[in-house]
Amino acid sequence: MSDFSDLYQDLILDHQKNPRNFGSLPDANHHADGFNPLCGDKISLDMKLDDKGVIQDIHFKGSGCAISKASASMMTTVLKGKKVEEAEHLFHEFHDMVMGKIDKAPEDLGKLKVFEGVKEYPARVKCASLAWHTMDAALKNEKDVISTDDGKGSEG
Amino acid sequence: MTAPASIKTAYDVEKIRKDFPILNRQVHGKPLVYLDNAATTQKPLSVIEMEDRYYREMNANIHRGVHLLSQESTKAYEDARVTIQKFINAASSSEIIYTRGTTESINLVAQTWGRKNIQAGDEILISHLEHHSNIVPWQMLCEEKGAKLKVIPINDRGELLMDEFKKLVTSKTKLVSVGHVSNALGTINPIADIIHYAHEHGALVLIDGAQSVAHLKVDVQKLDCDFYAFSGHKIYGPTGIGVLYGKLALLNAMPPYQGGGDMIASVTFEKTLYAKPPHKFEAGTPHIAGVIGLGKALDYVTAVGLDAIAAHEHELLVYGTQALSQIKQVRIIGTAAMKAGVLSFTLGEIHPHDIGTILDRQGVAVRAGHHCAQPVMDRFNIPATARASFALYNTKPEVDLLVAAVHKVLEVFK
Ligand SMILES: Cc1ncc(COP(=O)(O)O)c(C=O)c1O
């Protein structure tokens, strides 16, 4: 048993080992790339929306730490079949949860609540939220690579 | 000359540790094991107290007051310059320019010497091991001037390919700018050979000493480098203060860096006469407390002795390399024959960021990332490494704690 089960929950470890919806979508109509320059995490996200604004399919590719990979994988499983408004709503709830802005994780986050532990690890918040920021950009079809960094981060 | 055994004092790391108050603190309820010294080093009490005393007793602007405080702070500020001069054995204290750190020192050379001397078609040579701060300023200069940036390749151990280096030096090469020690891998580069060869072919040499100055004895006259840059915070001194050493003849011929107060001899609206080096390059009110603190830091290192420090850190490196290599998932990145106290590694498929978090919760501070040396990471086909880097206060029991913490990582991800 480890002392890290608050962060590295079994479900997270499972998704990082066996990421779901991994790969690209040839018929995607929404796409964005995300990058976390602090640790080099990269994600490339493909989405297929129908004309009613429902996410028909969503896939991701990339490399990164366990938290960012698991977060992307679980996000794709949750968002499939959801409406754009629901996806944006979950994004804001997820974001507030990992930032520690709310005391208790909202129930409608469902299994995404396993990421609640991230709020105790400030250095890892960006890892957990990278996929969601990228999803948000994909919905808007932003061309620039989404970066979790705002220009900080010089060190040796 | 060998001292009698009774006089020769052993390296007393426990005594040294008492000089660094931060080493007493706990993180996440565990004793701090600070192994991120390549990023920045901790400060001894003598440095902390000096900065404190400066603001309590001496604070005044320098070079411009007739009053006692200004005289005292000016004297302390200029005395530190002599301390630095002696520490790297420069010929004159006029060759010691205060900057904010290595980054600014390199940019200063690029913006002054570089903009004056580099022309279209010229070549600047760096290495594959460089920190971004010894890459980007030259890219910017080359872009502005239409000059070309060339890169000395490395082998799989992280050593410069010296045959390739020699092929890359041509009559167009105006400057070779290389690190003394790689911050990402710990490789100690053969800078004496590089300097000698570059000079034979008419190129100047800048040495990025950020990772060497606290770990190896540096004699800029013996090395014969043209510029040497380092940061105070990596040698137990304050942040925000660094040094550029330059040969006086070069400094005399270089245009000033920034314009302002303190860098002039006289100003009229028609014509300004610049001060002589080093003041020509030090416009504005500098980081006076930082300068004086840096002087104290160098005094501290001198008192312990750089040879003793290097021997101690080498012992830790050998011990740590041995211990980590026992773990079959560990891949050490950077296995040069000549290495300073830097242990960069990966752990199977586990991302360094996850390693860093789990180590941190056990009190072990390491760096996880690309170490501002992305080309090095690309060379080894990895996004990042975990890096433990040693300083004069680290111990073997701390290395044992690192190894135990790495085992914990494997347990979490088993
Ligand atoms: C080799 C090397 N060069 C340059 C630098 C930049 O130093 P500073 O950030 O103090 O300017 C560093 C520090 O990270 C370094 O390790």
Keywords, separated by commas or semicolons:
heterodimer, A: alpha+beta, 4 helices, 4 strands, 17% strand, B: 414 residues, alpha/beta, Aspartate Aminotransferase, domain 1, 2 domains, seven-stranded mixed sheet, four-stranded antiparallel sheet, globular, binds pyridoxal-5'-phosphate
Number-wise, the strands of chain B total 17
Q: Radius of gyration of chain B from the CA trace?
A: 22 Å
CATH top level label of the largest domain in chain B: Alpha Beta
Instruction: Please name the two chains that share the biggest interface, counting residues whose Cβ lies under 8 Å from a Cβ on the partner chain.
Output: A-B, 23 and 34 residues
The unique ligands bound to this protein are: pyridoxal-5'-phosphate
Number of helices of chain A: 4
How is the main sheet of chain A built?
4 strands, mixed
Q: Count of DSSP E strands of chain A?
A: 4
Q: What is the name of the CATH architecture of the largest domain in chain B?
A: 3-Layer(aba) Sandwich
- As for the number of domains of chain A, it is 1
